[in-house]
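Lecture 7 notes. Example A: sequence first, then its structure tokens.
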Amino acid sequence: MKKNSRPLWDEYFMKIAHIVSERSTCLRRKVGAVLVKDKRILATGYNGAPSGVTHCEKVGCLREKLGIPSGERHELCRGLHAEQNAIIQAAYHGVSIKDSVLYVTCHPCSVCAKMIINAGIKELVIFEGYPDKLARAMLEEASIAIRYAGKTDK
């Protein structure tokens, strides 16, 4: 008889985050985020332009055109990050995310880290790293628990 091969909770939610990332319209990096509390999904988000705004797939990437390295000058991107979209989706629908866990396919940037801290998210489960030392330092200072579930290139 075949043994049950159900994924562990972290695997399950991270797989969902990867599926969510497939909706991304970013030309540089596809990121997905899933907010979870008590093993229930509260909201999801992927990176891309705001609703009603033309996606980078159609107009191109300004950051790429200007040669801006990853992790710098986020204000020059027409898209929102996956973490931002998940937080906004929860707020839009009136869902409290205080004390939730955020599963994200890529380590948050410093802008997202500030939002995560002020949103009351208590823990991050991250698949892969991102070159933003300030984000890491702020999350650590705010005592946000961080676990890596995937690539360990912190």
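Example B, a different protein, same format:
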Amino acid sequence: MAILVTGGTGFIGSHTVVQLLNDNREVVIVDNLCNSKLCVLDRIKAITGKEVKFYKADLLDFDAIDKIFKENKIDSVIHFAGLKAVGESVQKPMLY
């Protein structure tokens, strides 16, 4: 059974993924990459020596999320996806 980590290429999410992989857990990452970069997956592999399954998708894309759950045996979710910029949240409150 896998753990789905939303926002898994962000700072906190990627550190969590590294720890989970080092604990021999199966991990699936979903991230829309709006606040992170795809190269984080290479860094995760360099640190752990393990590949991680990754989906570039937004959590508001229900069809994509449904597909992820159908393709993987996910038994838990750790949710780190979210916007975090205070200045932007004041300028664009509807995004937050």
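Note on Example B: Residues 60 and 87 are 23 Å apart (CA to CA). The mean pLDDT is 95.
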